[in-house]
Amino acid sequence: MKKVFVALTVIAACYACGGSNTEQKKPISNSENPQIGGETNAPDSSAAAAPATAPATAPATAANASNGKALIEAADCRTCHHDSDKLIGPAYADVAKKYTEADVKHLADKVLKGGTGVWGQIPMTPHPTVSEADAETMVRYILSLKK
């Protein structure tokens, strides 16, 4: 019974993470999601807009953490990760214990490209539709969970 549950969980995770779907996914972005600081009635213009995320060197603040949490909730991250409990992937609190602010770019790269071997042999799927800035915001939220 346990093997069946594990197999179904892995299959569900693969399906939720995109699998081999050939349709083009729209990138997740702060500026396009009103729940994470975007504007819903903003006209489309060619003028440069101020970035919706904090600069890459900004430490994890309450606002950054809030944006990061919203980005994680809007993506498929919760399929494999929870804040304090290990699921398919490590708990975010465990990731926060292992890494520091100096690792933000490295961890954001892992979110974008995926990887395996650091937390076991189950691979983390790549998330190419997430922007680098949003991946860094997500990572800063995760690092804010350090106790």
Please provide a written account of the structure:
This protein has 147 residues and is mainly α. The chain has one domain (27-38, 55-147): Cytochrome c-like domain (Cytochrome Bc1 Complex, Chain D, domain 2), CATH 1.10.760. Helix content is 39%, strand content 0%. It has five helices and no strands. Helix 2 crosses helix 5 (132-143) and helix 4 packs across helix 5 (132-143). The longest helix is centred in the first third of the chain and has 15 residues, at 2-16. It is globular, with a radius of gyration of 16 Å.
Protein topology:
Blueprint: H1 2-16, H2 62-74, H3 92-98, H4 104-113, H5 132-143
Helix pairs in contact: 2-5, 4-5
Question: Summary?
Answer:
This protein is mainly α. The chain has one domain (27-38, 55-147): Cytochrome c-like domain (Cytochrome Bc1 Complex, Chain D, domain 2, Orthogonal Bundle), CATH 1.10.760. The chain contains five helices and no strands.
Overview features:
147 residues, mainly alpha, Cytochrome Bc1 Complex, Chain D, domain 2
CATH architecture: Orthogonal Bundle
- The CATH superfamily turns out to be Cytochrome c-like domain
- The overall number of domains is 1
Portion in strands: under 5%
Shape: globular
**Distance, first to last CA:** 36 Å
Question: What kind of sheet is the major sheet?
Answer: none
Highest CATH level, the class: Mainly Alpha
Strand and helix order: HHHHH
Rg from Cα = 16 Å
Helix/sheet category: mainly alpha
Question: How many distinct beta strands?
Answer: 0
Low-confidence stretches: 19-58
Which fold name corresponds to the CATH topology? Cytochrome Bc1 Complex, Chain D, domain 2
Share of helix, binned:
25-40%
Number of helices: 5
Q: Please, what is the average pLDDT?
A: 73
